[in-house]
Amino acid sequence: MDIFNLLFAVPPGALWPSLTAGLFGLLIGSFLNVVIYRMPKMIEREFANECAEHCCNTPLPHTDTFNLSVPRSACPHCGHKITAMENIPVISYLALRGKCSQCKAPISLRYPAIELTAGVLAALMVWTFGGGWLGLATIAFALLLLAMTFIDLDTFFLPDNLTYPLLWLGLLVNLNGAFVPLREAVIGALAGYLVLWTVNTLFKLVRGKEGMGNGDFKLLAALGAWMGWGMLPAIIMLSSVVGSLIGIYMMLFKGHGREVPIPFGPYLTGAGLIAMLFRPEILSMMQRYLHG
Fold first, then answer.
1. Cα–Cα dist 109/246, whole Å
2. What tens digit of pLDDT does each residue of 150-168 get?
3. pLDDT, tens digit, 9 for 90 and up, residues 59-77
4. C-alpha distances in Å from residue 2, one per residue of 5, 7, 186, 237, 264
5. What is the pLDDT of residues 187-245, one digit of tens each?
6. CA–CA separation, 211 vs 208, rounded Å?
7. Is the pLDDT of residue 5 over 80?
8. Which of 6, 36, 2, 35 is nearest to 20 (CA)?
9. Residue 84: CA atoms inside 13 Å, Cβ hemisphere, count?
10. Which residues, 6 or more positions from 291, have their beta carbon under 8 angstroms from its beta carbon?
């Protein structure tokens, strides 16, 4: 048995590989915190530079290096550079008691929450799909959705840098029909985009304003590429349920009124994760419903 099979070719429901994947997810979750914070700023800076260069003929507003690795992460209050020991997922947060080691300013609980969520999702994917290449692909699926959820919550924006890789990875996974035949995956991608585009176009005609962004169309297209057109009705229905729960929570505990907009991306990501983990059960329920 070669080293790849030894490490990854394990069946679904295996405990230790799932726990190992969970530890891997914790590490990736720490990096996702960087992606969530920096990627929108990187896109904003790039856009500002392009505008200055091509439209205004003025000096570039951003000339310093700013990407996912540079500059080093630092405390937003005092500028203290985060050391490697202070960047251990979850453990460092607990050791520091949720405060900066220098200025003692509070560190948001969201950082360890994202790390834990990434770990749990990675473990669930390997538990459900095994430790082979499909398990690794579904880990990427889950973690991309996790990053998109928080970026959309923060900025009402879903970056092409994340939606497009998710879409292409879905088509690649289905080249040999891992979840659905490639034909169904391609139709799923097309139908996913067109469904929300049509809904948004009709909403704009009636209300005179946009109801959702292009990123939402691309995200549903990506989910269609992974699970095929046949799962789109279930995903849309699940997104409505997830959206209702989030909306009720925001109104009851955050004081948001009905007029306060909430991004649609987190509804789709939540529905996509549920559909991926419980796809056989959902398909079975749909078949029973359709056949009486």
1. 19
2. 999 999 999 999 999 999 9
3. 888 889 999 999 999 998 9
4. 6, 9, 34, 44, 44
5. 999 999 999 999 999 988 988 888 788 999 999 999 999 999 999 999 999 998 888 88
6. 9
7. no
8. 6
9. 0
10. none
HSE-up (13 A, CA, CB side) for residue 181: 3
Rounded Cα distance, 240 and 236, in Å: 6
* 227 closest CA partner among 191, 196, 194: 191
Cα 119 from chain centroid (whole Å)? 14
Rounded Cα distance between 163 and 221, Å, is 9
Q: Say what the pLDDT of residue 9 is.
A: 62
What 8-state DSSP symbol labels residue 76?
T
Residue 166 CB contacts under 8 Å (≥ 6 apart), including other chains: 141, 144, 145, 148, 219, 222, 225, 226
Please list the alpha-helical segments (H only) found in the chain.
3-8, 15-51, 91-95, 110-129, 133-155, 160-173, 182-207, 214-227, 232-253, 265-277, 279-290
> pLDDT digit string (tens) for 99-129?
999 999 999 999 999 999 999 999 999 999 9
How many CB atoms lie under 10 A from the CB of residue 88? 16
Q: What would the DSSP string read from start to end of 143-196? A: HHHHHHHHHHHHHS---HHHHHHHHHHHHHHGGGTSSS-HHHHHHHHHHHHHHH
